[in-house]
Amino acid sequence: MSTLEQMYQQVILDHAKHPVGRGLVDVASVAGHLAGESHQVNPTCGDEVTLRVDVTPEGSVAGVSWEGQGCSISQASVSVMTSLVEGADLAEVARLDGLFHDLMSSRGKGLDDDAAEDALGDATAFTGVSQYPARIKCALLGWAALKDSLARSGALATS
Amino acid sequence: MTTTTVRPGDPALQPAETGSLSTTELAAVRADFPLLERTVRGGQPLVYLDSAATSQKPQVVLDTEVDFYEQRNAAVHRGAHQLAEEATEAFEQARASVAAFVGADEGEIVWQPGATAAINVVAYAFSNATLGRGGEAAARFRLAPGDEIVVTEAEHHANLVPWQELAARTGAVLRWIPVGDDGRLDLTTLDEVVTERTKVLAFGHVSNVTGAIAPVATLVAAAKRVGALTVLDACQSVPNMPVDLHALDVDFAAFSGHKMLGPTGVGALYGRRELLEAMPPTVTGGSMVEVVTMETTTYAPPPQRFEAGTQMVAQAVGMGCAAQYLDELGMAGVARHETELAAEMLKIVDIPGVRVIGPLDTADRLAVVSFVVDGVHAHDVGQVLDDKGIAVRVGHHCAQPLHRRFGVAATARASASVYTTVEEVVAFREALAGVRAFFGAE
Fold first, then answer.
1. Domain limits of chain B?
2. What does DSSP say about strands B368-373 and B411-415: parallel, antiparallel, or unpaired?
3. How many domains does chain A have?
4. Do the Cβ atoms of B186 and B178 come closer than 8 Å?
């Protein structure tokens, strides 16, 4: 597989064409739930995502919805992340966020940790992206929006 | 020293009256640029189509900078020793070379760290004059609430944001000339936009997105009718076509060294002599003064008034060398070369799903071609081209309003310089033709 094909894995191309969670959902009024929204822009390329998160009173992610526009890497990454974090508790979301950042710092080598890669699931498809320094920020855009929307929801302070 | 046997200025390199650079001439030019010999992405030849972002440098420019540091390095305009004399002479000779290259007088060229800094000097001079600095001599730089600053929708952020900021500081109103669907300035409302209230008209000579050449004479005439000062962003024109600032009759112009085969860290502000003399300084400190007491200071005449602190001497000397290199190559031939490459680039409109943002004909445009590929984001386009060793720019190219005008967040852009070949553009077109298939776009 060429490095280009390593970067554009089929799972990434599929998520880019058929994204999960795309289309913002109104989450304002579920009793006891906390909701947060974040708009993130990558100023160098204009990629953007607006993401809403809905957190249960028990501190797990009830739902993620988003709107965005940008390259296939940024849009597929939000989509994969959405699949990954729905239903997860906030400690698990924080762990996945850390693992994904580690993956993006791996310069194409991956995490060399089977348990960690299992946890990341489809997100390990982005290993090839980490060989391209200019594209890492594309893959991280959605994760930044998730972290910020969780902070804005107030869920991080109470968990 | 360079490895080539043919140098710019050699009669063999002079383009024919009507022709572009010949294959032999182009081969000689390319041999002057050491970076073009390197390979990328697994040993493939580099196809560098990002010269509008920054150009590559000929060996003679690199050698000139090294030679300055090895033989002449000293502080300029001070010191009585031989090295200081030689450094000052090299610095001022470079100024003369750049001035001659753009049809200006020596005293009308101010060294700046780049074109962005140069435009900001003018914007802040207006600001300072508005605060009363510069006295009566600077009266024509004063702005009042209700005065208007006019730019165009096609501007690079460097020729937009400084004017937005100036408007915010002074209460002046920012207005702009719109861009038409063809990517050229829409002048149908010019007389409504440029009025008696207009004090400044700032516009790009050549768009770094569409490649369109602005109708300078029309815009300058409109400004003159109402007594407005003109500021020309000449970053894309100076490297790729003949530019005579006196003939264009603009009041100010800015251009950078690194886009015209010179070093980074240096650029030039051109100002008509009488205007530079009337303008208050912006950045202040050493070297730009006459008499300093604890209470007050009088300032040096231009250009030194606008050159505070130790200057980028080696880079300036390098930029002077780059101007000479281009001058000897002959800008008329370079411009014809640009037209030929633009025609080759514009053939991408025949690739299904490819749409060019900007003029589709070669009249009044340079070889700067931005485009979108239906169903594929510009970054992804750029990545697939990069995989074939082809370097293009992706993103908004520091012109977000122009992209918004065309309803796109990002484009990919191919751009040429003196060393770009038709074969490279063909390789680009062939690689671009495969992009949609790679992403399964229908």
1. 11-56+330-435, 66-327
2. antiparallel
3. 1
4. yes
Interface test mutation site (partner A, options B379, B393, B405, max chain A beta carbons within 10 A): B379
Q: How many CB pairs under 8 A join A and B?
A: 50
Quote the pLDDT of residue B4.
40
Please judge whether B438 and A69 are an interchain contact, meaning their C-beta atoms are less than 8 angstroms apart. no
Instruction: For residue A158, name the pLDDT band (cuts at 50, 70, 90).
Output: low
Nearest to A2 among B376, B387, B410 (CB): B387
CA dist B134 to B169, B174, B176, B271, Å? 17, 24, 28, 16
Task: For domain B66-327, give the fold.
Answer: Aspartate Aminotransferase; domain 2 (3.40.640)
3-state class (DSSP) for residue B309: coil
Q: What is the pLDDT of residue B6?
A: 42
Taking residues B428-437, report their average pLDDT. Answer: 97
pLDDT tens digits, one per residue of B217-244: 999 999 999 999 999 999 999 999 999 9
Give yes or no: B398 in active site: yes
Q: Is the pLDDT of residue A62 over 50?
A: yes
Alpha-carbon gap, residue A134 to A129, rounded angstroms? 9
Give the distance from residue B87's alpha carbon to the nearest chain A alpha carbon, in angstroms: 39
Query: What mean pLDDT is predicted for residues B289-310?
Result: 97
Which residues, 6 or more positions from B66, have their beta carbon under 8 angstroms from its beta carbon? none
Q: Identify the H or E element spanning B432.
A: helix B422-433
| Domain range enclosing A86 | 3-158
Q: Which chain B residues are within 8 Å of A48, Cβ to Cβ?
A: 409
Q: pLDDT tens digit string along B355-377? A: 999 999 999 999 999 999 999 99
Q: How far apart (Å, rounded) are the C-alpha atoms in residues B149 and B275?
A: 18
| Polymer length in residues for chain B | 442
The catalytically annotated residue of B334, B398, B414, B425 is B398
Residue B358 CA to chain centroid, in angstroms? 18
CATH number of the domain where residue A139 is located: 3.90.1010.10
Candidates 3.90.350.10, 3.40.50.2020, 1.10.220.10, 3.90.1150.10; CATH matching B11-56+330-435: 3.90.1150.10
Could you report the per-residue pLDDT of B81-111, keeping only the tens digit for each?
999 999 999 999 999 999 999 999 999 999 9
Interface test with A, best of B44, B161, B377 (most A CBs within 10 A): B377
3-class SS shares of chain A: helix, strand, coil, % to 5: 55, 20, 30
pLDDT value of residue A6: 87
Q: Are B239 and B206 in contact (CB under 8 A)?
A: no
Within a 13 Å sphere around the CA of B304, how many CA atoms are in the beta-carbon half? 17
B378 in A contact zone (CB under 8 Å): yes
CB distance from B388 to chain A under 8 Å? no
CB atoms within 10 A of CB B350: 9
CB-CB contact of B232 with B252 (8 Å): yes
Phi-psi region of B351 (alpha: psi -120 to 50; beta: other; left: phi over 0): beta
Task: Answer whether B407's CB lies under 8 Å from B372's CB.
Answer: no
Range name among A31-45, B226-240, B303-317, B336-350 with the lowest pLDDT average: A31-45
With CA atoms as reference, the chain B residue closest to A48 would be B409
CB B121 within 8 A of CB B112: yes
Answer yes or no: same fold for B11-56+330-435 and B66-327.
Answer: no
